[in-house]
Specification:
250 residues, mainly alpha, 3 domains, two-stranded parallel sheet
């Protein structure tokens, strides 16, 4: 059953964190905003929309907010405060702590919550360079929900299992719009296995989707980065090396 258009004005305010998704993936953000607008909703951007905050600012703010969630968890253990504490620690580069809090979130969660906690914990291990990552990342292959297709591919790719990652690419390209770092991983995986034609096809497919977008102020720069990622191995490695998991607080 589809919901009817609202018969009165409804406004949705979008919270923009210190490093909002509108800055890291503007076209994806605007596409979602347009979808809500077409449904008759009024969408108001957050104060930091399309802006990237300095890492120092993010770390300073997240420390105090993370402590709030940690104290909340100690008073009454639950999934949400543990997950938010883990996410804030991860965003600020406190990866060992992020992993520990993700484990606590997993212990308190159920269903999709456990999947969210697993993914965050794996990204924390990977960013920390922990030897546990190679062992724990195998758990991601048990996730079958298509919602997590991108996270599953990225973690598989970062673990170095190119054969499994390569098998996930067709489904990934069918279900997801890729940003530049994600496309860089896809092309790196394909090129590492000598699939030059498949890498070119992946690039052309994403460029075609990009040029269908009405947001011309972002299309040209995004397309330039995608093409550069195809021709420059060093640039691909830079994009992959700086990739970080992005997820909003709950």
């Amino acid at each position: 059953m589809k919901a009817n258009r609202p018969d009165h004005a409804i406004t949705i305010g979008i919270f923009s964190a210190s490093s909002p998704v509108s800055a890291t993936a503007p076209i994806r953000y605007l596409r979602g905003k347009d979808y809500l607008t077409r449904k008759g909703l009024r969408v108001v951007d957050g104060a930091l929309a399309f802006r990237r905050a300095a890492k120092e600012l993010l770390c300073g703010r997240s420390l105090s907010i993370a402590m709030f969630f940690k104290r909340l968890f100690l008073k009454k253990p639950a999934f949400v405060p543990a997950y938010n504490a883990a996410l804030l620690d991860y965003q600020a580069g406190r990866y060992p702590s992020a992993y520990l809090w993700a484990r606590r979130a997993d212990a308190q969660g159920c269903g999709e919550e456990k999947t969210e906690a697993l993914i965050l914990g794996l990204f924390a291990l990977q960013a920390a360079g922990s030897p546990l990552f190679e062992q724990e990342v195998k758990k991601i292959q048990t996730v079958t929900d298509r919602w997590y297709t991108m996270d599953k591919f990225v973690l598989t790719f970062l673990s170095g299992d190119m054969e499994t990652a390569r098998a996930q690419i067709p489904s990934l390209l069918d279900t997801c719009y890729l940003n530049v770092p994600e496309l860089a991983m896809v092309m790196s995986c394909l090129l590492a296995q000598g699939s030059t034609r498949a890498a070119d096809e992946a690039l052309h497919g994403q460029l075609a989707l990009l040029h269908e977008s009405p947001y011309r102020q972002y299309v040209r720069e995004e397309a330039r980065k995608m093409i550069r990622a195809r021709v420059s191995k060093r640039y691909r490695e830079k994009l992959i090396g700086t990739y970080r998991y992005g997820h909003p607080l709950i």
